[in-house]
Design a protein that fits this description.
With 958 residues, the protein is of the alpha/beta class. 45% of the residues are buried.
Length: 958
Amino acid sequence: MLDKPDPASSHHDGNGHSDVSLPEDLINELSSESLTFVEDLYTSYLESPSSVSEEWRNYFARFPQKSARKRKPGFGPTFKRHSMFNPPAPVRNEAIDRQTMKIADRQERLDQLIRNYRVRGHILASLDPLGKKRATPAELMPEFYDFSERDYDRVFSTSTFGGPKQRTLREMIQWLKNTYCRSIGAQFMHIDSLRVREWLQTRMESTANFLKFERPEALRILRRLTDAVGFEEFIQKKYVGLKSFSLEGAESLIPLLDLAIEKAGEQGVDEIVFGMAHRGRLNVLTNIMGKKPREIFREYEDSVPEMSVGRGDVKYHLGYSSDWMTESGHNVHLTLCFNPSHLEFVNPVAMGRMRAKQDRWHNIDRTKGMVLLIHGDAAFAGEGVVQESLNLSELRGYRTGGTIHVVVNNQIGFTTDPAQSRSSTYATDVAKMLQIPIFHVNGEDPEAVAQVVRLAMDFRKEFHRDVVIDMYCYRRRGHNEGDEPSFTQPLMYDVIDKRPSVRDSFLQRMLERKSVTEEDADRLQEESVSHLESELAAARVENYPHKVELPGGIWTGYRGGKELPADQIDTGVPEESLSNLLLKQTELPDGFTPHKKIKRLLQIRKDMAAGERKLDWGTAEALAFASLLTEGYRIRVSGQDAQRGTFSHRHAVLHDVKTGKKYTPLKHLVSGQGTVEIVNSPLSEAGVLGFDYGYSLDCPDGLIIWEAQFGDFVNAAQVIIDQFIVSAEDKWQRYSGMVMLLPHGFEGQGPEHSSARFERFLQLAAESNIQIAVPTTPDQFFHLLRRQVIRKWRKPLIVMTPKSLLRHRDAVSSFSSLTSGSYMKVIGDTSDLNPQKVKRILLCTGKIYYDLNERRRQTERDDVAIVRIEQLYPVPHEDLEAALAPYPEGTPVYWVQEEPENMGAWRFIYCRFKGNLFGRHPLHGVYRPASASPATGSGRSHQFEQEMLITESFRDDS
């Protein structure tokens, strides 16, 4: 018990009042926190004497009650707080004696122990179903704070902790262990916000972080576990040796998702977008997404191979959508994103999809939709796209209101142990970059899983931030069903082989508590097996319907497949409208002070609007955006310098030089216009491109653009390109109108600022899967952007955009060229030469045209024609044939490119036409020599190479 203070230690002044002031020699020993403890106790005593222990009641009773009044926050009525600004008078008194000091000191040591349990208690948590334990940190041991056995039954104030306001040390330690060291380990003390930390502390400490199941909840969880375990066992028996990437050992994922969806419905969430890799995907498809098992069994049967020749994907990569009616009567739409085997790259795609949905709903507070991502432990720690995606979570242009991250922690990556796959303590440590909690939970304790889900969902609703649930489990089988895991982890799998299923261990606990009965368990199991058997029988009928589901809903009316003649539509805009739209973008709010160079830019655009100057590249783009917005289309542009433009040509968002305020003219064109969002992205390629691709999947009626800072940097996002953008229609029947703007052009800026790797996109081009364009004039760019949105043929568009052409004197257009027509896939020779006199045809694309045309002017060559291919894919055979038709048969065609021979479009062109164009024109090439690197780093060497290239193009063969 607490030691009683010595009555002789109090001091009374002549008026009978107690002046309980700290003796000067104790000031350095007593912290403000300890003094606050005494003050709080005294305040509680004044309000209700019975609220404090008998020892403190006896102590406080010595002070006259008439002087007691409620203290203001932070100041005691009797105990004086000292500071360097208000030093104590050098008057010695004995009101708070050394015994009281000991009490306060013990309290402070307890507070330190409490804090360290909050910080480090997760180290002691029983997280691993396989029983692996970790050593107890010294700071979690009472002896570390000089507590002895005789202190265990002392009463302490626990007002800063959830639950009773007073407890013995023994009770307190047990409560701390229950809260932070059972089946849940919480990491949250890295969060800066006191409000957030206290919210989490209160939620966990008031309940000891425990949720006990009543019979209805126990039956629901048992049913989910029975279905999960039963599905895996059924697959293993019926399709022996075939890959399924079983969920066995992690079946608690199914009730976890069930609980999350139910909670989301209670919180008003209308739609959840899921992203996950292949482990457990079939189980999730069946038991969460509602895909009929017969469909999965039919995919295993694979009885109609001709249906999937050259297309489709394996069953554990496929997506699915369905509706879920919660117990509370709320309908939640579920969407599981399709996903390749490239783990974690679906993360930004799922986030982008939800952002598009929220924008379409005008859900500015991001509450109606939610993203739930299911990760693997090795991938979460190892894949850089995880960090990129986490970084997007709180950025204005990418926020979705908080993602629930569930890590299915197998404690192994394929055959690699954690010690070989990460340098961090936890697989989730990368998530500590965010101000969010990370909950580690034992997957064999469904009650703990349920508590964590409830806590995570409430946290997300309260703070609109991400949450991480790290569910410790194991992988009963190898990476796939053909692997033998004991080759590499013999000890681990010796333990796993002896373990009952999660369902059986949970059932045993519930039986002991009498929450369920054996009859309940048998009935649920019989129902599960019977259902699967009937579904298998349905899958094996001969007349099983075969159908390919094309995108519907918001995608109704759009199509993929091949381009049709009807897709070449007029994209012109009346000149008066264009002039007004351009003038509107030069108007600024009253009092807005632009940069002096921006002021000159606005004047130039006014001159353009008046027809006094021709249009440059940036202006044509601005007009394309403005015209689409006034027609009601949505525009989203993101990139590392998208607002200004890497090459200072866009200036879509202006900054007041005096106040720093921003103004976006495109947002103020006409009432009822479409929404525009120009976003400066983080320094990320894979994450941001994945996000914007995902956005395009749920925004068919918008112009969705990702712009690389330099086209060369696109190679950092190659997985998104290969696995999603160019192949999604073929694999998953999913369309996208995603636009990629990739600055490209050899201008002496070195190997990493020259090439957008043109050849890679051409190599990936097949079955009309993408469009690859290289516009050479502003009006072409204008029509290209408008065409992408207005027509209903939806394909990703890759545009090799210029750098030097942004301000080239010849790369300009008139208003009249924007008023009618459409994008020209091929531009024939625009000079007035006589086709019959032509001895050589130069075929090219992009910036090199201007260099060739300038040399032709200088040398007055009227026997050389220059033809531009403005769309490389789909290959415009008819347009190119028509452009070459005026020239005599046998006239040689030289493909001219700046890129080395093994890069650029040369090999693509040569393979397509087999060395001869349309049987009339022999085909040759002019290019830099094949090279391992795109370009030289020497500016003078570049000029030397370029001169050789141009000279070779005009070499006289005669």
